[in-house]
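<context>
A single protein, sequence plus fold
<sample>
Here is the protein in question:
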Amino acid sequence: MLIDLHCHSSASDGTQPPADVVGRAHAAGVGVLALTDHDTVAGHAEAAGALPPGMTLVRGMELSCRLHDHSLHLLAYLFDAREPELAAERERIRDDRAHRARGMVERLSELGAPVTWEQVARITGESVPGRPHIARALVEAGVVASVEEAFTPEWIGAGGRAYVDRYALDPVRAVRLVRAAGGVPVLAHPRAARRGYSVADDDIAELAGAGLAGIEADHPDHAAPDRDALRVLAAGLGMFVTGASDDHGELTGHRLGAETTSEDAYDALRSAATGAAPDVRR
């Protein structure tokens, strides 16, 4: 049984609707799938309704955090989506995402890039706008040749000419909010060097002290030595290790099931959750 605990749908910055994500995962042999859209639970109901017999959905999300002026992503699983404080933070982050996206479109216009808010809104659809939507608009307008090229200092990469900062949670507070909602917090892709993204061991240890339950070690952006080092670190801190595709549909080449979690780690995650249970289609 393949267990993929991190993927995205068009409820955030993936390219496929939640039901299609479930169908593609099933076709790829995934038996347990976590839908972890950015700062939203909007796709959960559709995904649960699309489950084929024998498949399990783990309701989750990827929370936006900031540490030392750098982005940090926290995966949250099986929390009570109705818990008011965590729900309020989700809404605040989503609202600021929209404000930030408009700001980046304005900066692009000032730089001479023919990207409009109407174009970004069409690409975004009913989800919350994010940088991948703007990147797709830049490709569509012929400004860049690929989404990857948009995520550079020339355009909307961190600190880039059209980059706009946004609200994000302190990760220690985020871990505690997830725990208070009965959920299980796991650090997402802490060694994604391709993105210029790295979380120091000392910072991971501090998050473990606050209640971090696991580390996502097996990720497409992680090199083998980093995966091994994260396993050693997790064992020393008493945490489990997860693996996942972090699939975004067309943006990542439809790679559901490319990286997976062990059944032991999944059992540990499920046992630690008190906010919700997985959806299982018998």
The domain at 2-90+167-280 is CATH 3.20.20.140 (TIM Barrel). The chain has a mean pLDDT of 96.
